[in-house]
From TrEMBL:
Keyword Lipid biosynthesis: no
InterPro entries, sorted: Rieske_2Fe-2S (IPR017941), Rieske_2Fe-2S_sf (IPR036922), Ring_hydroxy_dOase_asu_C_dom (IPR015879), Rng_hydr_dOase-A (IPR001663)
Parts of the chain that traverse the membrane: none
Start and end residues of each Rieske domain: 43-122
Known EC number: 1.14.13.-
A molecular function GO annotation: dioxygenase activity
Key words, A-Z: 2Fe-2S, Dioxygenase, Iron, Iron-sulfur, Metal-binding, Oxidoreductase
Protein name: Aromatic ring-hydroxylating dioxygenase subunit alpha
UniProt organism field: Jannaschia ovalis
Matches recorded under CDD domains: RHO_alpha_C, Rieske_RO_Alpha_N
Residues making up the signal peptide according to the UniProt record: none
């Protein structure tokens, strides 16, 4: 009852609301329940399609306690399966690799196609007998997980209860409809290991209130007053009206095609709930997939995209380095908030009605998913 009352306080209007209670950042039992309701019960990001560029490519992913297999099947479709053999539950693929023939279980050699069909069961009926009337192969294919790819991010609904992704995130898709065109993945990805609960990374990313103190270099040209808040159905974030393209003399990245004049100077940064952070600009984009690693650890996987498959090498190097520096400036903040959540008297904090709308929107969404 106490936690329900605290979550109800989160759902109050922003001027009266409290933040999520400490237990949602520190307590293993609370976080297990939260994981089931939010990370398993929503459309959560687990990676990007660029991780499996060729047919047959497969990448094992442990996400929120679930062993998954991200792969591209023979027809080129990106699919996600539970990464376990239907025989005795053995992990099928332990390292990223190309599936040349079938997915073979290393335990008893049961084999599956890249479409998930069980295609071979050696000696299942006894030595030399590879079939058994009591084994229904058609009913023992790999367990497929509902998956959807948007802006190259692979989203999954692990418990199968969420409405279709295009329905859940119709507002975000419509907001960036002009960017519904090819995104060319760049190889300058990187990962940051962060000592905080994944939700703190979302909360920090979606607001601009901290810019003057945490990002003084960025704030020098994209000032606090140049930013605007974004709150929508299933997402929140910020935008700027003074985006400046990175240049090297006359060289710059090509723009995405057919953009309206708004995007000459605008850029937007959305937290797509629960765990994907997106940025879009006239000439490049990025996606950050937050991978929970226990209650107080997160891996931030950062991926870059351009309008062309061959952006200028020197500029792309500078762009990745500059964004990495910005993201690293946030680390001590989210890690400091995680340490602060050990304070027994802290009740979740308060929100600035003028500046914290996007962050409160996320807290409210979480509380709603938990039944408050």
């Amino acid at each position: 009852m106490k936690d329900i009352d605290a979550l109800a306080a989160v759902r109050q209007p922003i001027g009266r609301a409290s933040g999520l209670p400490n237990a949602h950042y520190t307590d293993a039992q609370t976080i297990r329940a939260e994981t089931a309701a939010i990370l398993h019960g929503s459309w959560a990001g687990i990676g990007v399609a660029a991780q499996v560029p060729q047919n047959g490519d497969a990448v094992p992913i442990d996400f929120a306690g679930a062993p998954l297999l991200l792969l591209r099947d023979r027809a080129g479709r990106v699919r996600v399966f539970q990464n376990v053999c239907r025989h005795r539950g053995m992990i099928l693929v332990s390292e990223p690799r190309r599936i040349e023939g079938a997915i073979r279980c290393p335990y008893h050699s049961w084999c599956y196609s890249t479409e998930g069909r069980l295609v071979a069961t050696p000696h299942v009926g006894g030595p030399g007998r590879n079939s058994d009337a009591r084994i229904d192969r058609d009913g023992l294919g790999l367990i497929e997980v509902a998956a959807h790819v948007w802006r190259d991010v692979v989203f999954v609904n692990l418990d199968g209860t969420a409405p279709p992704f295009p329905e859940v995130h119709a507002a975000a898709i419509a907001r960036w409809a002009e960017f519904d065109q090819p995104l060319h993945h760049d190889g300058r990805d990187f990962e940051l290991a962060v000592a905080c609960n994944w939700k703190l990374a979302v909360e920090n990313y979606c607001e601009s209130y901290h810019l003057p103190w945490i990002h003084p270099g960025l704030n020098a040209y994209s000032r606090l007053e140049d930013h605007y808040h974004i709150e929508g159905d299933g997402f929140s974030g910020q935008g700027t009206s003074v985006y400046r393209q990175l240049t090297d003399g006359a060289t710059r990245f090509p723009d995405f095609d057919g953009l309206p004049a708004k995007w000459d100077r605008a850029a937007e940064y959305l937290s797509l709930f629960p765990n994907v952070l997106l940025g879009t600009h006239r000439d490049h984009a990025f996606a950050i997939v937050l991978m929970p690693d226990g209650p107080d650890r997160t891996r931030e996987q950062v991926h870059f995209y351009y309008a062309t498959p061959d952006p200028d090498v020197a500029l792309a190097d500078r762009n990745a380095a500059q964004w990495r520096a910005v993201f690293e400036e946030d680390l001590f903040v989210v890690e400091g908030m995680q340490r602060g959540r050990a304070a027994p008297g802290f009740d979740g904090g308060r929100f600035s009605p003028a500046m914290d709308g996007p962050t409160h929107a996320f807290h409210d969404w979480v509380a709603a998913k938990l039944g408050a």
